[in-house]
Specification:
Structural class: mainly beta
Mean pLDDT: 86
Shape: elongated
Low-confidence stretches: 90-96
CATH topology of the largest domain: Glycoprotein, Type 4 Pilin
CATH architecture of the largest domain: 2-Layer Sandwich
């Protein structure tokens, strides 16, 4: 599975495979073989590159706080597909309005607006199912819905125009 991991403003794609405590992580072309075992609440033992580490892992406002070797890291981890949808959101600004496009191939499962509706930033416009996940595409600007080009059950391709807001 691919993730986007970030510390501060830096973001990296991390691909993780394996299971049952034995994992392979690939980041920036570097391969890491990791043996990770969960101990007491939030305490992990890691064997990495022949060295043993103890990591204290906790959640803080949706980020992982990891303390290892006396160093504290705040790491934001998000599944790559979810990251793409959230950051690119299929939104593009075209002349005369805000155009919401499908961020990837999928199927429309719900349309929340019709032409003429007034929307505010954050309002759900459509829901796209992609890779077995439902993703809400939301308005990023206030305005009036000029066009809705899709309906529930319709398949879409990456880049298809779904909704136009003026």
């Amino acid at each position: 599975m691919r993730f986007v991991a970030g510390v501060g403003d830096a973001r990296e794609i991390v691909e993780v495979t394996g299971g049952d405590g034995r994992y392979r992580a690939v980041m920036d072309g570097q391969v890491w073989e990791v043996d990770a075992r969960s101990g007491a609440q939030g305490i992990w033992t890691l064997l990495l590159g022949g060295r043993s580490y103890v990591a204290d892992v906790s959640d803080s406002a949706g980020a992982c706080v990891v303390v290892v070797g006396g160093e504290r890291y705040i790491i934001e981890v998000e599944e790559e597909t979810r990251h793409i949808i959230r950051t690119r959101g299929g939104a593009g600004v075209g002349q005369g309005g805000h155009t919401v496009r499908a961020p990837m191939p999928g199927k429309i499962t719900h349309v929340s607006v019709t032409a003429g509706d007034v929307v505010a930033p954050g309002d759900t416009l459509v829901v796209v199912e992609a890779m077995k996940m439902e993703n809400e595409l939301r308005a990023t600007v206030a305005g009036t819905v000029r066009e809705v080009r899709v309906e529930a059950g319709q398949p879409v391709n990456a880049g298809d125009i779904l909704v136009v807001v003026d």
